[in-house]
Design brief:
Keywords: Cell membrane, Cell wall biogenesis/degradation, Lyase, Membrane, Transmembrane, Transmembrane helix. This protein is mainly alpha-helical. 46% of the residues lie in helices and 4% in strands.
């Protein structure tokens, strides 16, 4: 899945499947300029790995202005060998996209996409990351955050933390909000 960039493609109505595939792959290659390839190398990722991480970042937040910060969290975790612990990869691993709340029982999956159990990036992207998400990884914020949790106001934004204790406090607030809203 990492060989395409979602976009609007103008094609003739009678294009073959192979022709469309070739066109989309050409656009993917065009996206990867020398500058972007250099940025990927600087953060220690291949193009496929950038796509894999961008897919996770995209699934974590619909707020495009927050994605570079989330990408920075995951890059920090990768640097120190900490599991990514990304809920979207777990949902993908289980294959039940109706899950609204990841529970400990879900974390038992032996799938290589279970980033709670396995360190490093999963084998490939969990979706087709858009240009914004790819650029968020390539231009990730440089910070010391290791944790983030959805804000309890359900705004779609996240609270970020440097320490596990700070993260646990953020998570408790969010879990209490979920319980109050009867989201189980």
């Amino acid at each position: 899945m990492g060989m395409f960039v979602p976009n609007t493609y103008e094609v003739w109505w009678n294009i073959s499947a192979q022709g469309l595939f070739d066109r989309m792959y050409k656009e993917y290659q065009t996206f990867w300029t020398d500058e972007r390839i250099a940025k990927a190398a600087k953060i220690g990722l291949s193009q496929k790995e950038v796509s894999t991480l961008a897919a996770i970042v995209q699934a974590e937040s619909q707020k495009s202005d927050e994605r570079p910060r989330i990408a920075g969290v995951y890059l920090n975790r990768l640097r120190i060998g900490m599991p990514l612990q990304a809920d979207p990869t777990l949902v993908f691993a289980i294959g039940d996209f109706s899950i609204k709340r990841v529970l400990n029982v879900h974390k038992e999956s032996d799938s290589p996409y279970n980033t709670y159990k396995f360190t490093g990036l999963p084998p490939g992207p969990i979706n087709l990351p858009d240009v914004n998400s790819l650029n968020a990884v390539l231009n990730a914020e440089n910070h010391s955050y290791l944790y983030f949790c959805a804000k309890e106001d359900f705004s779609g934004y996240h609270s970020f933390a440097n320490s596990l204790s700070e993260h646990n406090a953020n998570a408790r607030r969010y879990q209490n909000a979920l319980n109050a809203a009867k989201i189980y």
